[in-house]
Design brief:
binds magnesium ion; 40% helix; globular; binds 3,4-dihydroxybenzoic acid; alpha/beta
């Protein structure tokens, strides 16, 4: 199997080589879906940034959606539709509504869906082009008036400054026992250390300034407000991978 980690090489991160080696070794034995790598490859070839959901998390989301019988999922931040395609792969019952700000990304996502899911892909994946701040309130109205079913899984992976805005609406659009994820919370440790970590090499983190950038502030707001939110129970799962050192919030709706 070709190294999946190589498909993230253009993202500017320098993951510790053993993180990638472990992903590549375990993926070879456990992830028999390398035909989906074409989505990562084609997305980067089309000029999209190499920041798709890493394969282990995408498969884990798909497995979770299958075992819990999710029929309707929401994604904020489609990029090349790698995550929606993964969700469809293990869960034949699922339909995904995914929101993408960039018309160009949505175009590449549609091509990827057609290539892997076939001509009938639109029966599985609904791509809505627009800003999450505009689209999500509209979806929430549709859920509230019963014209759109509640979601069993939401994956937030878009502009990090709006993490909390998206999460709060996602909770309102979720049925009890739904899962909500927010990607890119740990941010190579910037979540707690701010931009003291200027080196992308975790072994040589250099201390320079301690400011939190706006994306990290969005991650911290999500952690702090989720923890106070009586509607959910949540954890932050730190992850290392061939993509980077990062981590996501996993929340369940009570
Ligand atoms: C970035 C965004 C992501 O969603 C991600 O998973 C990794 C990196 C970024 O904007 O750099
Ligand atoms: Mg992400």
């Amino acid at each position: 199997m070709a190294s999946q980690s190589a498909l993230f090489a253009a993202n500017g991160e320098t993951p510790e080589p053993l993180w990638a080696a472990v992903d590549d070794y375990t993926g070879q034995h456990l992830n028999h879906h390398q035909h989906l790598d074409v989505v990562l490859h084609d997305s980067v070839a089309a000029g999209l940034p190499a920041i798709a959901t890493y394969p282990v998390l995408a498969k884990a989301l798909s497995m979770q959606s299958y075992v819990t019988g999710v029929t309707h999922a929401l994604e904020v931040g489609t990029l090349g539709a790698y995550t929606p395609i993964w969700l469809c792969t293990l869960n034949p019952a699922i339909k995904i509504t995914t929101v993408e700000y960039s018309p160009r990304h949505a175009e590449v996502a549609a091509a990827n869906c057609r290539k892997v899911l076939g001509e009938a892909w639109e029966a599985r994946v609904e791509i809505i082009v627009g800003a999450g701040r505009d689209v999500l309130p509209r979806l929430a109205k549709e859920v509230a008036d019963g014209s759109r079913p509640k979601f069993g899984l939401t994956y937030i992976d878009a502009d990090k400054v709006n993490n909390w805005f998206y999460f709060d609406l996602a909770v309102r659009m979720s049925h009890p026992r739904a899962s909500i994820y927010i990607d890119n919370i740990v941010r190579q440790g910037r979540l707690v250390a701010g931009n003291k970590i200027v080196s992308r090499n975790w072994m040589n983190a250099k201390e320079e300034r301690g400011d939190f950038d706006e994306s990290t502030l969005g991650a911290r707001e999500a952690v702090e407000k989720t923890g106070k939110d009586a509607r959910v129970e949540a954890v932050v799962l730190q992850t290392v991978s061939g993509k980077s050192w990062d981590g996501h919030i996993w929340a369940i709706v009570k």
